Amino acid sequence: MQAEVSILNKQLFRHVEVPGWKLKWDWSGDEVIWSMVGAEALQQGNCTRIKSKVLPHSCKKSPEIVDLLLGAPFNLQTTNCCKAGVLSSMKQDPTKYGATFRMSVGKSYTGSNIGYLIPKNFNLGLPGYSCGVPHEVQPSRFRSGNGRRWTEALMSWNVTCTYSQFAASTSPKCCVSMSAFYNETIVPCPWCSCGCQGSQGTQCVKDDKASSLLKLHGEEEGVTSALRCTIHMCPIRVHWHVKVSYKDYWRVRMTVNNFNYAKNYSQWSLVVQHPNLRSLVQTYSFNYIPLNQYGPINDTGMFWGIQYYNDMLLQSGDKGNVQTELLFHKDSDMFTFSNGWAFPRKISFNGDECVMPSPDEYPRLPNGSRSPHPIVRPYMYLLLSFLTLILLIQ
């Protein structure tokens, strides 16, 4: 029996990172995989029961299938294969969110048709993902011949896998800090946002020399991360800075810092929730697309890097950051700088929600001031008072 398997990442903004998917299932009978293109089984398994001159590709009861690497032989490739298991999100790159492979499945003793037993216990081999029970759907259709004829699969099954951030990791992966031009206070990420220094599985590195030694010996010692020592101990920090206020516009600088000495982030993405995103006029050096629009409501958007420019967030160091500036139009019906309105409600990095500061700690406007249009410095108030006093004396 010939079978075709497609893996589709239908998440809007979370992609599958390196090392990629590793699909696993349990056969319901005595099936084996005789051949495969577009992917490969990690283990052939014990094939001593096979009475054939040609051994199957895999005799495992629970095969583990991985994608082929880039540059695989042409005769082993299929459409949408050979990306090392990495899948983009649907919004970020609609051409690379799927993977497909084909296999020939048969009984272990003859290789003949096995009937239509549905495999069970599917697993993507990715932290945080859990898969449901396969269920039968409308058979897939294929074009054949000169393209006018349609053929149908004998049976088609769907398996839905869902993601849980808590199941993937008990600690967050990013945090948010804030600042504004009208307040000298910089609100840092909350203390121990992603863990504390010296916690289990976290290596705290204080300088570049120590990090270089860790890169050489980290794998041998089983170290999975090498984070710069910070109060928050997060691999990623997103800083939101309210930069300037004009008469009809206001500007924000958003910076993403990588504090991990041992990891680059390719095809990174940010999802920001802010009430003024519907009035976003221009984004510099990032791609942007709105999400979850309901009529006039548009408060959530996705940002990601420009290909070959800043789509790779490098390891911690001088180049371990990317940033953009956002220009917003002032909507007179809702615009204000008071009560933390200028700051985001929620930020996610690569699909994982970041730890936000407490609303009580947001940068505040100076006492007695209103939303500036544009800002008026305190010394200007003194100057105006002095001129008024002179006029009164005269």
From TrEMBL:
Species of the source: Kingdonia uniflora
Biological processes annotated in GO: cellulose microfibril organization; plant-type cell wall cellulose biosynthetic process
The family this protein is said to belong to: Belongs to the COBRA family.
GO cellular component, one term: plasma membrane
Record-linked InterPro entries: COB_C, COBRA_pln
Record keywords, A-Z: Glycoprotein, Signal
Domain COBRA C-terminal positions: 173-363
Protein name per the record: COBRA C-terminal domain-containing protein
